[in-house]
Amino acid sequence: MPSLQSRVVSQLALRALSSVSALAFAALTAAAQTKVLSLTNTSTSNSSYVRTADAPELEPQRFTLEARIRPMGAGFGQTGTSFGATILTKPIEGTTGSFLGSWALGWEPTTSRVYAMVVNTPDSIGRFVYSNTTVPLGVERHIAATFDGATLALYIDGQIDAAASTSFSSVYYGNEDVLIGASNLGAGFLRRFTGEIDEVRIWDHARDERAIALLSECRLTGQESGLRLYYNFNASNALDSSGGGSNGALVGSAVAFANETNVLSACGSPWLTYCTAGTTTNGCLASIGAAGFASVSQNSGFVVAANGVEGQKAGLVFYGLSGASATPWLGGSSSFLCVKSPTQRSPTLASGGVAGACNGVLALDLLAYLNSNPNSLGQPFGGGEALFLQAWFRDPGAPSGTNLSNGLCVVLAP
Fold first, then answer.
1. Is the pLDDT of residue 394 over 90?
2. What letter does residue 214 receive in the DSSP assignment?
3. Are strands 218-219 and 265-266 parallel, antiparallel or unpaired?
4. 0.90 cut: is pTM over it?
5. Are the C-beta atoms of 118 and 127 separated by less than 8 Å?
6. Residue 210 forms beta bridges with which residues?
7. Which of 15, 99, 218, 326 has the most CB atoms less than 10 A away?
């Protein structure tokens, strides 16, 4: 007969599915209102881009840049040369040389590859990285670049695609504006993009690959922690939905707003599993998952549960904020530590079930725990943070006397 914990988790999962269905219906109702920025750049007289005034909020030393793009043409302004057309940049306009700006995301028509740039000293010290994956004409992709002070990384559709180490840790910033769809450099290197751009985001930290993936196919609320700029273009303008006030100005006559081809729904609190569970003494593989809605404005209702735990064992759930790991566990165990330190541990949990069987469950209402422990790691949360969780439990017959589940990444909702 299922344990009480198993039945509770199952009931919460059913409630979560009902909530998801309601959200999906709401998303379909609003589908006609979702837009993308459509730029046509073919000549000086037929050209367009977006300009956002310089602001301290747009000068993070660690960052994530994101956008959804669909190239529809070669663009205009020396886009047939290296570095092609620009998607998002903070350039030093009207100048010539190399590494002219703070950072950039772009697309190269001649190779269909995406690139990212970060600069320490203009016209002297910087780093480029090119994607291995191509983005052909007419194909929509989510692209992102992160800089953590040591590595510039490039992501396509939420998967890391290329990365390069840097010899510097600080980013150059002057008083330059942020541009979308253009660089406007000197000697005719305008680098203006033709195609669709959507979901433009600037964050003040380098986000983990899993956190990027979880939010790559959905619309943000704009209230996510660390979000410095957010344009979803749904109101047919370039208003900043992050609340930061960095609204953009439309420049040129060849700008339009088209309906999204791939309609995005609200992000909610997405999660995914990763890493590998260890095999226990009795051949169990503890599998972690979740049910409910992980909104930091709620006091309870998001249950993290590891199923398939050995019965009648003590354990706990722990989380971290520093990213994923896959480090071999202690003493020759088959388990892996899937969460980077520092970590926060829950109180001791009982797996229930039958001793020697794989029907134990370690369940934790994460929101209730966070609300009862306001000084726990990372508090207070504002939404948008990625938590990495794993279950630990006693297994006296294992090499280390303990074992671990696989890992879980969840992005908190505001």
1. yes
2. H
3. parallel
4. no
5. yes
6. none
7. 99
> Is the separation of the CB atoms in 235 and 247 below 8 Å?
no
Q: Are 16 and 241 in contact (CB under 8 A)?
A: no
**Nearest by Cα to 287 from 4, 50, 2, 6:** 6
Q: Which helix (H) or strand (E) holds 4?
A: helix 4-29
Beta strand 402-411 with 287-292 is: unpaired
- The conformational region for residue 370 under phi > 0 = left, psi -120 to 50 = alpha, else beta, is alpha
Strand ranges (E), 204-275: 218-219, 227-231, 248-252, 255-259, 265-266, 271-274
Evaluate the CA torsion angle 144, 145, 148, 151 in order and state its sign: positive
The residue type of 384 is: G
Count the neighbouring beta carbons within 10 Å of the beta carbon of residue 201: 25
Could you give phi then psi for residue 24, rounded to 5 degrees?
-65, -40
What's residue 400's pLDDT?
87
Distance CA 118, CA 330 (A): 39
152-185 pLDDT, tens digit per residue, is 999 999 999 999 999 999 999 999 999 999 999 9
Would you say 50 and 85 are in contact if contact means Cβ atoms under 8 Å apart?
no
Distance CA 83, CA 131 (A): 12
DSSP of 138-172: T--EEEEEEE-SSEEEEEETTEEEEEEE-S-----
- Give dist(CA 361, CA 350) in Å, integer: 8
- Residue among 295, 229, 201 at smallest CA distance from 56: 229
68: nearest Cα among 49, 52, 83, 87: 87
244-256 pLDDT tens trace = 999 999 999 999 9
Residue 277 in contact with residue 405, Cβ under 8 Å? yes
Instruction: Please list the residues that pair with 361 across neighbouring strands.
Output: 307
Report the alpha-carbon angle 105-164-172, nearest 5: 55
pLDDT at 7 over 80: no
Query: Which element (helix H / strand E) includes 179?
Result: strand 178-180
Tell me the pLDDT band of 90, cut-offs 50, 70 and 90: very high
Q: What are the strands of the beta sheet with 125-134, ordered from one edge?
A: 125-134, 113-121, 101-108, 85-91, 178-180, 48-52, 248-252
Tell which residue, 127, 101, 132, has the closest CA to residue 116.
127
